[in-house]
Design goal:
Blueprint (H helix, E strand, L loop, with lengths): L5 H16 L3 H5 L2 E9 L3 E4 L1 H13 L8 E7 L2 E13 L5 E14 L2 E9 L1 H13 L5
Parallel strand pairs: 1-6
Antiparallel strand pairs: 1-2, 3-4, 4-5, 5-6
Length: 140
């Protein structure tokens, strides 16, 4: 049984997604509890809000202009799971997006804060998309 209402958990998740969509990674990082755990299977495991911020803010500077459309979200008690895409700017000549899918699992801790986040995606799908997108960019 959840100690928080579904409405509270959903509102906190929506707030995080709005911060993400605004590329406000500092504010996004502040939605973690001081002792939060962030597991990012390619980048590493980060313990505590300050460690998360020290990693998250600089790495996401490299992703300015990306969007993160959510395909679906499920809430089970304090846990939020959602499937999303990392969508890079622009489209291919055929109109399709440069993107790759992933999943995130989060644990809500109350007060608008999350104590855990784990991001999962297939790095073997990421690299070809990044290379294809980079090759399609105009020369500087």
């Amino acid at each position: 049984m959840s100690e928080f209402s579904r409405e509270e958990v959903m509102a906190a998740w929506k707030h995080r997604m709005a911060l993400q969509d605004a590329d406000d990674w500092e504010a996004f990082g502040r939605t973690f509890t001081p002792d939060a755990l962030y597991v990012e299977h390619h980048e590493g495991t980060f313990r505590g809000r300050e460690a998360i911020l020290a990693w998250l803010v600089p790495v996401m500077q490299q992703c300015r202009g990306w969007t993160y459309p959510v395909e679906w979200v499920a809430i089970d008690g304090n846990r939020v799971i959602h499937k999303w895409s990392n969508r890079l700017p622009g489209t291919r000549p055929d109109g399709s997006h440069y993107e790759f899918a992933g999943m995130t699992v989060m644990e809500y801790a109350g007060g608008g804060l999350f104590s855990h986040q784990e991001d999962m995606y297939n790095w073997e799908e990421v690299v070809p998309v990044l290379k294809e997108w980079a090759a399609a960019q105009p020369a500087a």
